[in-house]
Amino acid sequence: VEALTQLAEQVPWRQDVWLRLGLAALRADADIAHDALERAAAGRDDLAVARRALLTLADRDILAGDHARARRWLDRIPSHPAQPDPELALRRIECALARGETKRIVAEAAALDGLDPEASTFSGLTTLGGRRRLVRAHLARLDPEGRHGGTALSLALGALLLDAPGAAELVAELLADTRDAAAVARAREVLATTGKLETPRFRAAFALAEGRRADARDALMKAADEGDAQAATTLLTLAATWQRVDVLAAVATSHGDLLSEDQHLLLEAHRHVDAGENVAAVQALERIVDPAMLAWADALLESAIGAWRGEGEAPSDWDPLLAELRRAATELDRLDQIAPIEALAVERERPLLVAVLGEFNAGKSTLLNALLGTDVAPTGVMPTTASLHHVAWAPDPFARVMVRGGSDRVVPHAELKTMLTALRRAGETVHQVLIYAPIERLKRIEILDTPGFNAPETTHAEEARRGIERAHVALWLLDATAPLKDSERRVIEQVAAARVPIQVLVNKRDRVGDEGIGDVMTYVASALEQVGIRSLAPPVAFSAQQALAGRLGDDAALQASRWSDVEKILADDIVNRSDLLREGALRRKAVHIAASLEQAAATRALEHDEAARDWEEREARRHQLASTFRNERGALAESIMQRLDAPLDQLWVDARPLEQLTEERQKSQEVRNYLVDRCVARLAPVIVSALVEEAGDDLSRAGVSAVERSVRATIAGAAAAHRSAPFPEGDALRAAVSAAVAAAADEVDAAGTSPPGHATRHRGVRRRLAAFASVFGERGSVVDDPSEDGGGDGDQHDDE
């Protein structure tokens, strides 16, 4: 190394000397190795030497785990699709394997067939045959059915015998996963010849292959405690597979320097969960990006978020839950979701909201009047409810009519119908009707009367769907004379799909009589079962018309109406369960918000991924362009020379006035500066134009500017150094153009742009929201799922 260093200083233009120095320094582990190889790779006179230097630089980075930089070295090596390059393909596959780029691995695999297995890598660290076997082992692992020359395990064992870096790790992984006794026995024979059979890594691998998991863990833990770093590394892999925090903590104690940032984050999160600090745990877990750790991190995320979910009928801890949703909405710039989140916070303190649903003329408004005990809501054979009617408690009875684009009208109950008729005739649009009444039940539940789904006006159905979105529970009113028509089935299925609990009531019992109501109810029960709908309590039949008459003073009508059955359901299954039903609705709405935000996070992450791929492709093209400039410098210079005849003629014209000056004046610096400026002005644009044409779309605007600067500087330097004529011509100009092309290549190489921001943050947000949805989705249901079966007694249960 010392001798070659002295020689390189004496002949710095000799690429081969720099290469020999770099290889010798590698073997001696001398610091100068990298710089020497870079000098050899940067040379332009011997492309074969430059190639060897670039491959060796790539090998060093592959061994060091810096596959991104290794790929940049490889991108500088000229290649042609029609001429496979096995050595280049091998290294590209190794980089792709490290980055999980399956498509690129498959695309390059065919080129491996031409590789000389006995050839050594230029660094002398291992043979290419060993590395090829290891790559084929990885390929066989990805595609067990493909033709790779053997099984993944047999190929990996061959690579191990050839001392391929990384082979031992792969053999241990494959052994731990296999249940093929013959393959295990063969591996034992091979490893016995290498002297590695009793190492902790392979003792654990064989124990796992034979189902002795505890033995594997104990052997590795003992070795790690005794200072075996290899055993500790294997334990870290198994800790992630087993999701064992005690194993991870043990390695952290004995070999803390081996833990990655993600493993430290996982340990930190476990400590936070154990301490009940779930917010801190969630924030730590969403920062984890290692694919090997994600399953574990996501399971712990669900545990941390699940701690806020109430068990059974207990309410959830909504303050941290809503804070997490707000944080996600802010991080994703989805400020449109802030209002729904804040609405949930308010909704926690409000009465249960019960939506009355059904087709028009099913008797929804009559039912509402019966509940109020007064004839206040408009009814009729035509669709009369065009907007949502919200019934709530107040110490005095009155109604507030909200007019779209106009002022509100406040009227007594008795004047509401008249007011609505007058507004309709005046062409006014009623947005919502708020009906207040001093009824004790309304302190715990509020009622939403919705338009009929099958009303002629499409706005009626839209208003009804808006009511479903707001409701905590639905009262579905069927007409006993035509129950559960196809149109009703479609809508009731939508309500059930939205996971809104449903209580089915059958109105107009008086129309079919006592003799026919049994068949109607049997049909309703069967039809509900067919569509998979479960009513909170078994459906009951009644007459809303008779109930209203009874509430207004007709005792016989009240008794005939069977209104008491409806009152019992309202009391037992809705009012008395209002806290439970509200909790379920809050969870359902929170999951809906989380799902919307999760989709936004996924979109953001995808956009970042696409931007990153575009950036990588641009960078690869840029490096390839720089390589083309270097490798084809001579041909490019000749091509450019053919364009310079006219500019040279113009230069002579520019120089002619100088002939009138004295000889002393012609030699002055002022004249020399003038000639340099004219050379740059006449020649540089032509050279830059030719290079830009050669680059095509692979050169950015910034790259064009960088090339222009380098060309102008090179031509200026060449013109300033040329003294035998006013400006360089012939070989001198050819050399200047060649130097300009080389300088442009260097500028193109250096003209890279910063990569786009990583999608890590958005992926973390998405994982957090997915855990939220998992915890508060179907597993988090606190009331009966109305779509589970077609009947039941409405007993509450926890699906988990």
Describe the 3D structure:
With 800 residues, this protein is α/β, with parallel strands linked by helices. The protein folds into 4 domains: 2-242, Serine Threonine Protein Phosphatase 5, Tetratricopeptide repeat; 267-306, no CATH class; 350-577, 3-Layer(aba) Sandwich (Rossmann fold); 611-750, no CATH class. Strand 3 (398-403) and strand 4 (409-411) form a beta hairpin. Helix 31 (645-655) packs antiparallel against helix 33 (669-695).
Topology summary:
Layout: H1 2-10, H2 15-28, H3 33-42, H4 47-64, H5 67-75, H6 86-99, H7 102-109, H8 128-142, H9 152-161, H10 167-177, H11 181-194, H12 200-209, H13 213-225, H14 229-242, H15 245-255, H16 261-274, H17 278-285, H18 291-306, H19 318-331, H20 338-347, E1 352-357, H21 364-372, E2 388-393, E3 398-403, E4 409-411, H22 416-425, E5 430-437, E6 445-449, H23 458-470, E7 473-479, H24 486-497, E8 502-507, H25 509-531, E9 540-541, H26 544-551, H27 555-561, H28 563-575, H29 578-631, H30 633-641, H31 645-655, H32 663-666, H33 669-695, H34 701-721, H35 730-750, H36 760-776
Parallel strand pairs: 1-6, 1-7, 2-5, 7-8, 8-9
Antiparallel strand pairs: 2-6, 3-4, 3-5
